[in-house]
Structure formats: structure tokens, C-alpha cells
Design a protein that fits this description.
By secondary structure, the protein is of the alpha/beta class. It has one domain: Rossmann fold, CATH 3.40.50.1970. Helices cover 44% and strands 15% of the residues. A 6-stranded mixed beta sheet has the order 1-3-2-4-5-6, sandwiched between helices. Helix 1 links the parallel strand 2 and strand 3. It is globular and about 55 Å long. It binds 5-O-phosphono-beta-D-ribofuranose. 5-O-phosphono-beta-D-ribofuranose binds next to strand 4. Catalyzes the conversion of N5-carboxyaminoimidazole ribonucleotide (N5-CAIR) to 4-carboxy-5-aminoimidazole ribonucleotide (CAIR). Pathway: Purine metabolism; IMP biosynthesis via de novo pathway; 5-amino-1-(5-phospho-D-ribosyl)imidazole-4-carboxylate from 5-amino-1-(5-phospho-D-ribosyl)imidazole (N5-CAIR route): step 2/2. It catalyses: 5-carboxyamino-1-(5-phospho-D-ribosyl)imidazole + H(+) = 5-amino-1-(5-phospho-D-ribosyl)imidazole-4-carboxylate. It is an enzyme of class 5 (isomerase).
């Protein structure tokens, strides 16, 4: 998907039932959120992506949260910036694990988004990744799905080996 592609209509990876729902408050979040989609693609995980604004389309947000589990989704990744209520509201509406991505905006460097998402009341968890780190959200979703999927677990182990090898290679270049 291109960086400028709007996501006002749902997009899905080919290959069947999406397992992960990626949602965001605005299409302006997509340049950040697309890293989650890229990570899922690397692991061959089917996903859907859409704009579901907590403030501009609250009825649609409630419907998304209520219907996600019944539609077969297994994890939700939700990103928003500023007064970032989307991940927490979705977590209140669904039994699925919700991963929140604080999207950095022009002002406050994403600290507003981070604090809006991470400070959830007891009983309504959101697994919050670092500011702008949608890639980690995609990787965490892959790990959650891997708990019941041996093939995916092996892919994650292979990925971790690739990280280690890349780190070793960097060390070698410094030691030369
Ligand atoms: C939030 O407002 C969105 O998640 C986005 O990060 C921010 C700005 O949205 P736009 O004005 O760019 O549509 O709800």
C-alpha cells in the first residue's frame, strides 16, 4: 500500500478471513500505521485496515468494537493522535486484545497520544506500544496469534534469529 493511500474504505490482505483489524482515527495516521500492516504482511497474517474515528464517527466506532469478535477478528490494533480515545473505547467494547499506537502529531510530540492511550483504568487493558511504533504493534499482534499457531511461532523464532544476526553484523563492522 502506498503512503498516500486513503483507508476510508476497508482494505484487506488477500487470502481469506482477516485475523487482525487495524483501525485509526484519521487517514492522516496511515503513514504511521502502515508499518503495522507491513509487519503483518511479513508474517503472512491477513488483516483489514480502516478509519474509525472515536470523535467524528462514534456510532461506527461502537459498531466496530461490538462486531469485531463476531466477525472473526482476533486482535485489534488501534492508532490515534492527540486526544487518542480510540484504543481505549474499543477495548471497552470488545473481548479481543487491543494494541494501542500513539500517533505523534505536530504539537506535543505524541506525548498527548501516549498518555491518552496508556493511562487506562483497571479492568480495561490496552497494550500500548511506544510513540509512533506501529511496527511493534504488528509484531505484538503476530506474537499473540502465534500462541495458538505453531507455524507462526516458528516464523517468530526465525525472525528473532534474523534480528540477532543483524546485530552481530553491526558489531562486526564496529570491530573491524
Ligand atoms: C485524531 O486526530 C486522529 O487519530 C489523528 O491523529 C488526529 C488528526 O486527524 P486529522 O485532523 O488529520 O484528520 O483523532
Amino acid at each position: 500500500m502506498s503512503e498516500t493511500a486513503p483507508v476510508s474504505t476497508p482494505v484487506s490482505t488477500p487470502g481469506g478471513q482477516p485475523r487482525v483489524g487495524i483501525v485509526m482515527g484519521s487517514d492522516s495516521d496511515w503513514p504511521t500505521m502502515m508499518a503495522a500492516a507491513e509487519a503483518l504482511k511479513e508474517f503472512g497474517i491477513a488483516y483489514e485496515a480502516d478509519v474509525v474515528s472515536a470523535h467524528r464517527m462514534p456510532e461506527e466506532m461502537v459498531a466496530y468494537g461490538r462486531e469485531a469478535h463476531g466477525r472473526g477478528l482476533e486482535v485489534i490494533i488501534a492508532g490515534a493522535g492527540g486526544a487518542a480515545h480510540l484504543p481505549g473505547m474499543l477495548a471497552s467494547l470488545t473481548p479481543l486484545p487491543v494494541i494501542g499506537v500513539p500517533v505523534p502529531l505536530k504539537y506535543l510530540d505524541g506525548m498527548d497520544s501516549l498518555l491518552s492511550i496508556v493511562q487506562m483504568p483497571a479492568g480495561v487493558p490496552v497494550a500500548t506500544v511506544s510513540i509512533g511504533n506501529a511496527r511493534n504493534a504488528g509484531l505484538l499482534a503476530a506474537r499473540i496469534l502465534a500462541t495458538g499457531d505453531a507455524e507462526l511461532t516458528q516464523k517468530m523464532l526465525d525472525f528473532q534469529v534474523s534480528l540477532r544476526d543483524a546485530a552481530h553484523a553491526k558489531g562486526a563492522s564496529v570491530r573491524e
